[in-house]
C-alpha cells in the first residue's frame, strides 16, 4: 500500500469539480494521485438528481478508479464537506459490521466550510426559501435576510443582523464554476437530504483524522468547536481573511493546510 494517500475532492453546492483546479495542480505537483468529482446534479452529472446515496456512489467510483489498494483522503467543501463526513461515518459503520470490502482504505477527511450542524430546523428554513419561486433580486434578497435571521436566532438564541450572503454561503450560491450552473431545485434536494443528518454525529462516528478548515469570515463557523470536540483525531484551522469558499478565497493558504493534513494522514 502506498504511503501517501490518493486524494478525492468533492465540491460545494451549485458549483462543480472545476473549483478544485488550484488544489489538483498543487497535489499533483507534490506527487499525489488525485481526482475531483462532480456530484449528482452538478457539472458532467447535471442531468442526474442529487441524493446522498448518489453522492456516495460517485465517491465510490472515484476511489475504485484510484485503486482498491490505495488509502484515500477525502477533501470536501460546504455540501462536499457534509457529504464526505457522512461518507466517512458510513465507512466506519460498515467496518464495524464487517461489511466493508477494503477496510482501512480511508486515511482522513479535510472538511471545509461545513461547521454548522445541518440537522433540524435551520436547514429546513433554507430549504423552504429555495422552494419558493421569486422574481427579482430584491425579493430574493429580502427572503434571504429573513431566513438568515431566523437561522441565526435558532442557533445563537439571539437575533443578529444577517444579509443575503448568509443564505448564499449555506446554499453554496457563490460564483459559478464553469459554464453550467444548477438551478435552485438542486438546493431543495440537497437540503432535504442534509436536514435529517447531524454533521457532528458524522464526525463522532468517523475513526480517521478529520481536519476542519474554515475561512475567518465564514458566518457558518458557529459550531466548529463542537465538531472538533467530536473528532476521533481532529484539527481545526481558520484561514485569515477568507470567506465560505476558503479554497478559492485563499488558495495558497488552503494548499499549505492541505499539505499538512495529507502528511498527518500518512503518519496515522
From TrEMBL:
InterPro entries: AB_hydrolase_1, AB_hydrolase_fold, Carboxylesterase_BioH
Keyword Hydrolase in annotation: yes
Xref: Gene3D superfamilies: alpha/beta hydrolase
Keyword terms, alphabetized: Hydrolase
Entry superkingdom: Bacteria
The keyword Hydrolase appears for this protein: yes
Span of domain AB hydrolase-1: 7-256
One term of GO molecular function: hydrolase activity
Entry-linked Pfam families: Abhydrolase_6
Cited SUPFAM superfamilies: alpha/beta-Hydrolases (SSF53474)
PANTHER family, per the entry: HYDROLASE ALPHA/BETA FOLD FAMILY, PEROXISOMAL MEMBRANE PROTEIN LPX1
Record's protein name: Alpha/beta hydrolase
Organism: Xylanimonas protaetiae
Amino acid at each position: 500500500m502506498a504511503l501517501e494517500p490518493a486524494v478525492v475532492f468533492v465540491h460545494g453546492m451549485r458549483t462543480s469539480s472545476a473549483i478544485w483546479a488550484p488544489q489538483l495542480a498543487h497535489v499533483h505537483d507534490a506527487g499525489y494521485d488525485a481526482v475531483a468529482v462532480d456530484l449528482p446534479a452538478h457539472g458532467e452529472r447535471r442531468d442526474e438528481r442529487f441524493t446522498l446515496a448518489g453522492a456516495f456512489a460517485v465517491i465510490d467510483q472515484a476511489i475504485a478508479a484510484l485503486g482498491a489498494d490505495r488509502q484515500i483522503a477525502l477533501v470536501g467543501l460546504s455540501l462536499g464537506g457534509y457529504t464526505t463526513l457522512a461518507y466517512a461515518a458510513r465507512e466506519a459503520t460498515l467496518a464495524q459490521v464487517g461489511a466493508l470490502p477494503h477496510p482501512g482504505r480511508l486515511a482522513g477527511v479535510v472538511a471545509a466550510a461545513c461547521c454548522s450542524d445541518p440537522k433540524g430546523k435551520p436547514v429546513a428554513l433554507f430549504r423552504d426559501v429555495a422552494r419558493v419561486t421569486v422574481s427579482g433580486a430584491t425579493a430574493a434578497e429580502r427572503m434571504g435576510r429573513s431566513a438568515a435571521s431566523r437561522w441565526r436566532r435558532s442557533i445563537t438564541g439571539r437575533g443578529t443582523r444577517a444579509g443575503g450572503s448568509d443564505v448564499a454561503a449555506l446554499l453554496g450560491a457563490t460564483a459559478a464554476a464553469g459554464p453550467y450552473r444548477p438551478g435552485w431545485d438542486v438546493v431543495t434536494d440537497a437540503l432535504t437530504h442534509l436536514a435529517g443528518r447531524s454533521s457532528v454525529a458524522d464526525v463522532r462516528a468517523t475513526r480517521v483524522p478529520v481536519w476542519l478548515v474554515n475561512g475567518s469570515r465564514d458566518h457558518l463557523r458557529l459550531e466548529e468547536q463542537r465538531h472538533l470536540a467530536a473528532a476521533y483525531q481532529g484539527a481545526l484551522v481558520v484561514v485569515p481573511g477568507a470567506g465560505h469558499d476558503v479554497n478559492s478565497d485563499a488558495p495558497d493558504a488552503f494548499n499549505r493546510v492541505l499539505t499538512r493534513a495529507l502528511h498527518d494522514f500518512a503518519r496515522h
